[in-house]
Write a structure and sequence with these properties.
Elements lengths: L4 E2 L18 E3 L5 E2 L3 H5 L6 H10 L1 E2 L2 E3 L4 E4 L1 H10 L4 E5 L5 H11 L7 H28 L12 H15 L4 H19 L3 H13 L2 H7 L4 H12 L6 H14 L15 E4 L10 E8 L4 E6 L5 E4 L4 E5 L12 E4 L9 H4 L5 E7 L4 E5 L4 E5 L3 E5 L21 H11 L6 H10 L7 H14 L1
Parallel strand pairs: 3-6, 5-7
Antiparallel strand pairs: 1-4, 2-7, 5-6, 8-9, 8-12, 9-10, 10-11, 13-14, 13-17, 14-15, 15-16
Helix pairs in contact: 2-3, 4-5, 5-6, 5-7, 6-7, 7-8, 7-9, 8-9, 8-10, 10-11, 13-15
């Protein structure tokens, strides 16, 4: 039997289901049920768009593995895909299992080759530990039935616990047992806040774990509850992409009282909010945030109907509309990276301090995407100095770091250097671009060298 088989009725007229592989049957996908543990391990929001496009284009699909009770063991994403496409028959392979533990083990083994997030790996490792525990119980019970004495139960020494942790980490693809241990603790926290109804916080913590790093997510467990909620609030509302950005926003705002920057659980001055109906007598009323009260960990809002100013805990407010933070920059501007707090910036970004780049996008909350060549930096307006603005098509000499008068060719040079950065340059060529990307004035000879370098690649 081939790995994938054609779907009858979708460009494969004349192929009878019973003729395609002896171990394959055909069934209405609506009669199948997902395994109850699948979504707990792998989540419910898996992206299937690419699979939808592939099956729709080829009309071929790999058979799903199901139990005699029509429970899916392998093929949950394929099942969701055929349901979305409205396909009324799907190929299956029926397999029977001795017990729920064997069924669960098959579920994990069938997903062994898939690409997984750190969260999925941690959840898999926890299930593998559960499976191993159940198998150990079965072996112990079998020994008792054969007349063997039960082993003496002792506390496992730390070394044995470490070996188990390392073995599980290796099995699911973590670099070390310590990394798995950190990820597992983060997953426990994600589940905890979800059970408490704080979905946005759980989602933001998941975003840090899967999109940034295990260490970044684990460090959030070491700070105070209030600081963690503030940091995750920024990420949940899209105002910070990383924990480093969130920390810098909080640090600057708390130090300088900058009202244009979010300071408490994602809320900032100017946001339009609604008071939770369960919060107080003002429940259901709308208002605008007018002040962040750090000392009391409250947010002061001006109510619309009665024009009263009332303070609430962040948990008592729901965001209706974010305040738009006006940025002095726009797409096409050439700006110098000038980190106000270099020590708090991620190392891979910090190396660009003093270089210029080209603005590619500006978000409504003041985050600026700067193209420095081969990578995009997400920075805040206060970490930039403009040297060329598209608005006036002139040079902002007053804000420029360089005492020299910026070259009228700066914009053109910037685009050329950013383009060259994407090529496989040697050390000499890279050093040349490094030199030019820290200057705003260029000699004729330097411009000729740049043109020659361009001719080598384009």
């Amino acid at each position: 039997m081939s790995d994938r088989i054609p779907i009858p009725g979708r460009g494969t007229t004349g192929i009878a289901p019973e003729a395609v592989g002896r171990a394959t049957a055909w069934i209405d996908p609506r009669s199948l049920r997902p395994h109850p543990r699948n979504h707990l391990i792998y989540g419910e929001d898996e992206d299937i768009e690419e699979l939808v496009e592939l099956i729709e284009k080829t009309n071929w699909i790999k058979p799903l593995v199901v139990t005699p009770n029509d429970v899916i063991i392998s093929g949950h994403r394929r099942w969701k895909t055929v349901l979305k496409l409205g396909i009324d028959r799907v190929p299956i392979e029926i397999q029977a299992f001795e017990d729920p533990t064997a069924e669960l083990e098959a579920l994990l083994l069938e997903n062994a080759s898939r690409i997984k997030t750190p969260e999925q790996k941690a959840r898999e490792a926890r299930v593998w530990q559960e499976i191993e525990g159940e198998k150990a119980k079965v072996r112990q019970l079998a020994g008792l039935k054969q007349g063997k004495s039960a082993p003496v139960v002792e506390n496992f020494p730390q070394r044995e616990i470490g070996k188990t942790r390392d073995r599980l980490a290796k099995r699911v693809g973590f670099g070390s047992g310590r990394t798995y241990e950190k990820a597992e603790k983060v997953v426990v926290q994600i589940d905890k806040v979800r059970e408490e109804g704080r979905e946005a916080e759980a989602s933001a913590l998941r975003q840090v774990l899967n999109g940034q790093s295990v260490d970044a997510a684990y460090k959030l467990l070491k700070v105070t509850t209030q600081e963690r909620e503030n940091l995750l609030g920024l990420i949940a509302r899209g105002q910070a992409k990383t924990t480093q950005q969130a920390r810098r926003m909080l640090s600057r705002s708390q130090r300088e009282g900058d009202r244009g920057i979010v300071t408490m659980q994602g809320f900032s001055v100017g946001d339009r909010v609604e008071v939770d109906e369960k919060a107080s007598s003002h429940g259901g009323e709308m208002g605008e945030v007018v002040e962040i009260l750090h000392a009391s960990c409250q947010i002061s809002i001006m109510l619309e109907d009665c024009s009263d100013r009332v303070s609430f805990c962040p948990s008592e407010l729901m965001l209706v509309q974010k305040a738009i933070v006006e940025s002095p920059y726009q797409i096409g501007d050439v700006v110098i990276i000038d980190f106000q707090e270099p020590a708090s910036v991620e190392g891979s970004d910090r190396c660009w301090h003093g270089y210029w780049g080209v603005v590619r996008s500006v978000s409504e909350v003041g985050v600026v995407e700067v193209d420095v060549g081969k990578r995009q930096l997400l920075v805040f307006s206060y970490d930039l100095k403009s040297v060329y603005t598209e608005r006036s098509r002139s040079v902002d000499i007053e804000r420029s770091r360089d005492a020299e008068s910026p070259s009228p060719h700066l914009k053109e040079v910037a685009e050329k250097i950013v383009k060259l950065r994407g090529e496989d340059l040697d050390d000499l060529e890279t050093n040349m671009l490094n030199f030019l990307q820290r200057r705003v004035e260029f000699t004729e000879r330097q411009l000729k060298h740049l043109e020659y370098l361009l001719s080598l690649y384009f």
